[in-house]
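Incident log, support desk, overnight shift.

02:14 A customer reports that sequence design results differ from what the structure should imply. Their input is reproduced verbatim below. On-call engineer (initials T.W.) acknowledged and began investigating.
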């Protein structure tokens, strides 16, 4: 129906879609103030069962990774490996993880970022467990699309039934938070929730949307600045607000170490803090260790990886290894005599990434390496433009890098919406799924899609959000449009 629109009506639809998304909170707060995050169409449409299945895969890999991280940091493969991984963290992160990694039993939200290979099989590239955002952004994009489509066709139908059929990532997050709170002994019927963020948080628009959604379900939910949170007689307080749950949306490295909230991050017991400080679960090097164990029975036994988990990882996680000189194993478990030389020989097959980084800044795609963007990133990181071979050697010579097998992406035609209308583009689209840990009766079932002109798909580097609609919701929308 969108493709059949004349250009002027498509531009009007795009302008309305962009305005609605912005007003609902699809914005990014940067140095220049609030700016809209692009929203693109047509939406990604799939059966609801597909998003549920993706969330189950994410949960399985998260559980396996958590078990591996627990054992590695406990020295199951020797103190040297544990020290190497802990050394990637900031000092405050390392101190908290060393003292408390055994206590990380529950995560209210985890996001896996996936891409599909040419066969349509989706692969988990990485996990986000510190600030696994975009629950609100994805809900906003879907709602804005449905409302704009109805308005375009002059329909005044209530979108509630359509959106209910689509599901809500924000509602899934709320259920996970409450389930984790109950698992830790919380007794309030509708626990109050503080969404804790740093001052001038870039994603404040999303947090405000989530807080409003939580309030709509009867919870006293407020966005609060981390510096204003302080412990008081066993609970946390923000002025006269004593929240039952702290939803953390701030890196510990962004918190004043002398602040009262820093003390809560160091000793979270009793505060119902979700997620606790857990950068070790987001390190790509930890995912690399899980990938290596999935083809090595001896390592798998040492790390508690079951045959079922190993099979899931082999099928759904691209071959991933820590980037170091010396031997490694391939995707079948066979020995690679020298990893650096192996990577230098087949440039287009690999992606090199910083193990503990975000925003797509420390990513080099072999297939595109040598273009202007990659040359700029290499020069910014290493002080000079490097050939692919030299880049591999430079990364291998310092700690904190991983290599991952490239999953080929296919660009698709999209329109990016703005106040000026619809801008056609060829863009790469990924899909993210949500899960939790330790709250199995409240597993999330949704996801979010992002689009970018670059194969490194990231909102912070200029990407946008694509509405993700269930086929069931799309059918209801078409029925409403047809009247």
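02:41 Re-run completed on a clean worker. Output:
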């Amino acid at each position: 129906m969108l493709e059949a629109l004349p250009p002027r009506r498509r531009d009007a639809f795009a302008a309305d879609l962009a305005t609605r998304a912005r007003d609902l909170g699809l914005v990014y707060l940067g140095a220049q103030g609030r700016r809209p995050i692009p929203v693109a169409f047509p939406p990604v449409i799939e059966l609801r069962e597909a998003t549920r299945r993706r969330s189950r895969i994410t949960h399985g890999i998260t559980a396996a990774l958590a078990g591996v991280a627990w054992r590695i940091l406990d020295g199951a493969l020797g103190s040297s490996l544990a020290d190497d991984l802990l050394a990637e963290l900031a000092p405050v992160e390392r101190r908290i993880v060393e003292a408390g990694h055994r206590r990380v039993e529950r995560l209210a939200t985890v996001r896996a970022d996936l891409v599909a290979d040419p066969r349509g099989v989706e692969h988990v590239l990485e996990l986000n467990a510190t600030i696994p955002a975009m629950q609100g952004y994805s809900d906003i994009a879907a709602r804005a699309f449905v409302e704009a489509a109805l308005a375009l066709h002059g329909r005044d139908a209530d979108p509630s039934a359509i959106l209910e059929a689509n599901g809500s990532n924000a509602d899934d997050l709320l259920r996970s938070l409450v389930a984790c709170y109950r698992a830790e002994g919380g007794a309030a019927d509708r626990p109050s929730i503080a969404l804790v963020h740093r001052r001038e948080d870039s994603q404040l628009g999303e947090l405000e949307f989530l807080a409003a959604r939580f309030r709509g379900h009867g919870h006293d939910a407020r966005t609060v600045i981390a510096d204003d949170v302080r412990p008081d007689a066993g609970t946390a307080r923000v002025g006269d607000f004593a929240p039952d749950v702290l939803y953390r949306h701030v890196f510990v490295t962004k918190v004043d170490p002398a602040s009262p909230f820093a003390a809560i991050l160091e000793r979270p017991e009793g505060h119902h803090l979700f997620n606790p400080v857990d950068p070790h679960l987001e390190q790509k090097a930890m995912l690399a260790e899980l990938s290596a164990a999935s083809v090595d029975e001896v390592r798998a036994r040492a790390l508690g990886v079951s045959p079922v988990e190993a099979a899931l990882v082999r099928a759904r996680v691209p071959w991933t290894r820590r980037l170091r000189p010396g031997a490694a194993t391939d995707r079948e478990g066979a020995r690679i005599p020298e990893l650096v030389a192996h990577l230098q020989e087949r440039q287009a097959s690999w992606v090199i990434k910083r193990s503990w980084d975000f925003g797509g800044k420390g990513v080099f795609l072999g297939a595109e390496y040598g273009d202007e963007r990659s040359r700029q990133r290499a020069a910014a990181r290493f002080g000079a433009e490097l050939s692919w071979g030299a880049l591999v050697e430079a990364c291998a010579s310092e700690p904190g890098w991983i290599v991952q097998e490239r999953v080929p992406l296919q660009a698709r035609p999209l329109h990016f919406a703005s106040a000026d209308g619809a801008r056609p583009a060829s863009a790469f689209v990924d899909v993210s799924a949500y899960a939790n840990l330790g709250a199995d009766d409240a597993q999330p079932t949704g996801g979010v899609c992002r689009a970018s002109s670059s194969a490194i798909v990231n909102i912070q580097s200029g990407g946008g959000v694509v509405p993700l609609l269930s086929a069931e919701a799309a059918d209801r929308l078409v029925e409403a449009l047809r009247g």
